[in-house]
Amino acid sequence: MTKQLIVITGASSGFGAEMAKIFNASGYPLLLLGRRTEKIAALNLPGDVMIKKADVTNQDQLAQAIHAGEAQYGPTDLLINNAGVMLLGNVWQQSPTEWQTMLDTNVMGVLNGMQLVLPQMTARQHGTIINMSSIAGFKAFQNHAAYVASKFGVHGLSETVRQEVAAKQVRIMLVAPGAAETELLTHVTDDHALTEYNAWKQTMGGLTLDPKYVAQTVKFMYEMPQAVNIREVDIAATRQD
Ligand code: NDP
């Protein structure tokens, strides 16, 4: 079967960049999105790859990027809502601006993307959306209140929409990874919370999840036949508690 368009948000680093590489190596046409497009370009991926600047909190910008990708490659068959932010801190000290950034990016960003592709997917009765949640989407972690709230939100909205579009043969999937080495922690402003997080990571003996296994998992989920929906995967380093 001809390979159809895959759109990945947050393709400039971490899981998103690994997913871009693995799908590119298998010849899928890709629309790779992020705010730092120069970092996506630096991946140097050959073939059918379009790179567009898009902030997922800005639905108009996201829509323009997706329209450009679809004009070139046809309808999006897989949207990976991967872009996300994790800013640590306890509720009585963290700035509400940081809560807003997480809720806007991790929840509104996912809803924005879903709303843009679902009309054509339900009309075609074909398509898949994979939302990146986290183990923090079903389990609490200290210093993560707003992040946990955002990722519990991703779990809840994903299952809701899955039920809404299942009869239209559209798949909504969710991936909940454990701790991995990416750029996620580089935005944390609370040094104390960061120190505690790094101390917790040491309980894994430095053996956190390699992002390439998340990318492999996402590809496996997508490549199942359209009639099969791997609804949720929880993947972590073996040593994570
Ligand atoms: P990174 O920080 O490496 O990547 C995050 C990506 O999101 C970047 O490409 C960034 O691109 C993009 N992004 C952030 N804000 C926006 C925005 N407003 N608009 C568009 N893109 C944005 O972290 P990860 O790869 O770890 O994170 C990817 C996903 O995985 C996130 O949803 C995260 O919550 C989740 N996750 C991560 C875990 C981990 O331990 N690393 C564990 C569990 C889940 P740019 O700045 O160029 O816009």
Layout of helices and strands:
Layout: E1 5-8, H1 14-25, E2 30-34, H2 37-41, E3 49-53, H3 59-73, E4 76-81, H4 96-124, E5 128-132, H5 145-165, E6 171-177, H6 191-202, H7 211-223, E7 232-235
Parallel strand pairs: 1-2, 1-4, 2-3, 4-5, 5-6, 6-7
Bound molecules: NADPH dihydro-nicotinamide-adenine-dinucleotide phosphate.
Give a short synopsis of this structure.
This protein is α/β, with parallel strands linked by helices and 241 residues long.
Structural description of this entry:
- The protein is α/β, with parallel strands linked by helices and 241 residues long.
- It has one domain (5-235): Rossmann fold (3-Layer(aba) Sandwich), CATH 3.40.50.720.
- It is built from 7 helices and 7 strands; from the N terminus they run βαβαβαβαβαβααβ.
- It has helices at 14-25, 37-41, 59-73, 96-124, 145-165, 191-202, 211-223, and strands at 5-8, 30-34, 49-53, 76-81, 128-132, 171-177, 232-235.
- Strands 3-2-1-4-5-6-7 form a 7-stranded parallel β-sheet, with helices on both faces.
- Helix 1 (14-25) packs across helix 7 (211-223).
- The chain is globular, with a radius of gyration of 17 Å.
- NADPH dihydro-nicotinamide-adenine-dinucleotide phosphate (NDP) binds at residues 9-10, 12-16, 34-36, 39, 55-57, 82-86, 105, 132, 134, 177, 179-180, 182-184.
Could you give the order of the helices and strands? EHEHEHEHEHEHHE
CATH architecture: 3-Layer(aba) Sandwich
Number of helices: 7
Under CATH at level 1, the class stands as: Alpha Beta
Number of strands: 7
User: Structural class, from helix and strand content?
Assistant: alpha/beta
List the bound ligands.
NADPH dihydro-nicotinamide-adenine-dinucleotide phosphate
How much of the sequence lies in strands comes to: 5-15%
Tell me the name of the CATH homologous superfamily: NAD(P)-binding Rossmann-like Domain
Form type: globular
Q: Name the poorly predicted regions.
A: none
Mean pLDDT: 97
| Total domain units | 1
The first-to-last residue Cα distance is 41 Å
CATH topology: Rossmann fold
Rg: 17 Å
Going across the major beta sheet, what is the strand order? Answer: 3-2-1-4-5-6-7
The biggest beta sheet reads: 7 strands, parallel
Considering DSSP H and I runs of 4 or more, what fraction of the residues is helical?
40-55%
